[in-house]
Amino acid sequence: MEFHTVVIGAGFSGLGMAIQLKRDGRDDFVVLEKADDVGGTWRDNTYPGCACDIQSHMYSFSFAQNPSWTRSYSAQPEIWQYLRDIVDRYRLREHLRFGVEVEAARWDSDELRWHVTTSAGEYTARFLVLGIGALHVPNIPALPGIERFQGEVFHSARWNHDYDLTGKRVAVVGTGASAIQFVPRIAPDVAELTIFQRTPPWIIPKADHPVPGWARSLFRLVPGVQRLYRDLIFWLLEARALGFNGHPRLMRLLARAALANMSRTIQDPELRRKLTPDYLMGCKRILLANDYYPALNRDNVTVNTAGIAAVAEGGIVDGDGVEHRADAIIYGTGFHVTDASEYHLDITGVDGRDLAKEWRRHGLHTHLGITVAGYPNLFFLLGPNTALGHNSVVFMIESQIRYVAQAMALADRTGSAALDTKESAQAEFQSDIQRRLVGGVWTRGGCRSWYLDSRGVNRAIWPGFAWRYWLRTRTLDPSTFELVG
């Protein structure tokens, strides 16, 4: 099966690329999705309370705005429905192939084509676009003795809705973004809830509220109003980048507000001590919640900071040797991010180059988080160092799909079969971005997070304003590439 472009993944990135191809008048492409529906992380994460921490009007495509968001911060079902709606709006269904898992991709330097091996056979394409995202490989900690546990075990991204938690003793491992959303939802129903916390997160109130009917009508009838509202949200979020990049003092001001909020909610001084971070705000992902702290005040909820020594048949033994009985263990431990690409990609480039081995040896290196030298016509969406801690990644995706479209147009305009990023351009980008990351809160904040790889190097975050990335990718520089064929 031969196509102009093969897109892998049908989440925000993959669907955005498919729409861009359609808008450019291309129909000879296919989107391969291993699951049975679109949505990516918004399809997979169905745990109670799952919602976005970026305002809905910003966490959506600028060219496919939704005037009907019911809340300022939408819940998972509404975001998932939005993605399914745009599939129909842009007539993408004929390009989607569900239940097709990609196993490997190999560049053929003679044919100047990508050969993509999948569970449904081989696909051949001139261009290969990876929209696989970062939040799809659950991080399951290797707890000693977990195989002996007699109860139910699952990760928040693989929530077992068939298992009734009512009246059960539940152990939650981790206090990341998903845990602070599902803990308040399950706490009233369970008999006992023990939360095993390794590092307390910084939590600030979430300015969530229903979108009034009159506002939804106004957005629908006067689209320019929604555009202005979206722009306002964008610039308010952009201001937060100052604290992340080289101005940690601003984070200390926000931290004081967060601690004041905790003090108002948590009366027990010992619990406040457990919940107070000892690192600079922003070093780890800042979380938004209004109901997490109140849930911890419940009589049936305990926060344990003694660590996990082992798992027994009937529960978890903490670092003090105390066994906590449990009927179920739920992992709220997030995802593999900086190491996911290293170990879950089988991509072969020019002269047999193995991308996973290269990244394992030298760290994740790209140009603009989109292309990699030695792998012609291969493009990443939301690749290394293009995630954000302060604004919407959908904005980054839009910048990237426009850049990819320009690269394809350059190949056509010059009569080239392929484009390969120059090693010098890639090295210059890596040097620049790591230099700017040195002064950021992720490096200087005094913590370890999923932003950092095994060497302690930030391979996840874009260091700066999102508009600077937009400016950097707005016009493709042909001198970045070697023209092949």
Structure overview:
The protein has 485 residues and is an alpha/beta fold. It has two domains: 2-137 and 336-484, FAD/NAD(P)-binding domain, CATH 3.50.50.60; 146-207 and 240-331, FAD/NAD(P)-binding domain. It has 16 helices and 20 strands. The strands form five sheets. Strands 1, 2, 3, 4, 5, 6, 17 and 18 form an eight-stranded mixed β-sheet that branches. Strands 7-16-8-9-12 form a five-stranded parallel β-sheet, with no helix packed on it. It is globular.
Task: Give the SSE layout.
Blueprint: E1 2-8, H1 12-23, E2 29-33, H2 41-44, H3 76-89, E3 96-98, E4 102-108, E5 113-118, E6 121-130, E7 152-155, E8 169-173, H4 179-186, E9 192-196, E10 203-204, H5 213-221, H6 223-238, H7 241-244, H8 248-265, H9 269-275, E11 287-288, H10 292-296, E12 301-304, E13 308-312, E14 315-318, E15 323-325, E16 328-331, H11 340-344, E17 347-348, H12 355-362, E18 378-380, H13 393-414, E19 418-421, H14 423-437, H15 441-444, H16 466-474, E20 481-484
Parallel strand pairs: 1-2, 1-6, 2-3, 4-17, 6-18, 7-16, 8-9, 8-16, 9-12, 10-11
Antiparallel strand pairs: 4-5, 5-6, 13-14, 14-15, 19-20
Helix pairs in contact: 1-13, 5-6, 13-16
